[in-house]
Design brief:
Length: 271
């Protein structure tokens, strides 16, 4: 792997007392209020919370797609105010370019933001091999299953050698078996790249299985209710999910999330 580009000392995200608001129907709605957190280089952090609590808003803030109304977010001491190649993003919907082949989808980023000596084509072939889809290099996205498209989405994000990989419910649309395989693959990639990952999900099992830490969010406006360390040994596999500690951690998340989901549902119902 390209160790001179990928280093464990990069990829520190500091969220410093930010709020994010939207104007909607002549009203200012705070999706997030006074959030602070530090995500360390190489850490795998999940943002877990009920629907509508502001998870995507927070991730979009980190990605530079949305600017906070106050406070600031920085990557390696540089304030983020627009998207940058240091951040790779994977969305829930497979957002591949339908008119480009799989290989062209992956090489597109490197052809714009050149880093290192590899050609965009070489980079695309390397990442296709890593995600096990070399045979599909010249296929178009609509010729691939959802899981395969999402693997291409991950390869496309990694092809820019980002310091941080941001993922917004990337496996939400997959069946449960494919989802488990994708989670295990993602952990392998993360180990190999030693990259910072910020992963949004509302699935408790997924968050506990993947994370070093879970930021549990409360709702309307979103805040971080609990910063929970996940002290399960790695590498993780089927044994992890059967362990007593996994079940305990899942239970902690369950009770915290349940409270918030009920609150969110009631608030949404009375708006
Ligand atoms: N562009 C926008 N304009 C107005 N309001 C918005 C906009 N985007 C999000 N919101 C509001 O901000 C709040 C948080 O939304 P966000 O999408 O960040 O939540 P979420 O936790 O990602 O939800 P989900 O789990 O359903 O994806 C919601 O109340 C939503 O209605
Ligand atoms: Mg969302």
């Amino acid at each position: 792997m390209n160790q001179n580009i990928l280093s464990k000392t990069k990829g520190k995200v500091v969220i410093d007392n930010i709020s994010i608001s939207y104007s909607s129907r002549n009203e200012q709605i705070y999706a997030l209020k006074d959030i602070s957190a530090t995500i360390n280089p190489g850490e795998f952090v999940c943002i877990l919370g009920p629907s509508g609590c502001g998870k995507s808003s927070l991730l979009n803030g980190i990605a530079g797609f949305v600017n906070p109304s106050n406070g600031k977010i920085s990557l390696d001491n540089k304030e983020i105010n627009k998207p940058s190649p240091e951040m790779g993003m994977v969305f829930q919907q497979y957002s591949l370019y339908p008119w480009k082949t799989v290989k062209e989808n992956i090489s597109f980023g490197p052809s714009i933001n050149k880093k290192g000596n590899e050609s965009p084509e070489e980079i695309a072939l390397k990442f296709l091999d890593m995600i096990g889809l070399s045979k599909y290099a010249n296929h178009y996205p609509n010729e691939l299953s959802g899981g395969m498209q999402q693997r291409v989405g991950i390869a496309r994000a990694l092809a820019n050698y980002p310091d941080v990989l941001l993922m917004d419910e990337p496996f939400g649309a997959l069946d449960s078996q494919t989802r488990i395989i994708m989670q295990e693959n993602l952990l392998k990639i993360w180990r190999e790249f030693k990259i910072t990952v910020v992963f949004v999900t509302h699935d408790i099992d997924e968050a506990v299985f993947l994370s070093d830490r879970i930021l549990l969010m409360s709702t309307l406006p979103g805040k971080i209710k609990r910063d929970l360390k996940i002290d399960l040994p790695r590498p993780r596999d089927k044994e992890t999910t059967d362990s007593k500690r996994f079940i305990e951690l899942r239970q902690i998340c369950h009770s915290l999330i349940r409270e918030e989901s009920i609150k969110a549902f009631e608030k949404q119902n009375h708006l």
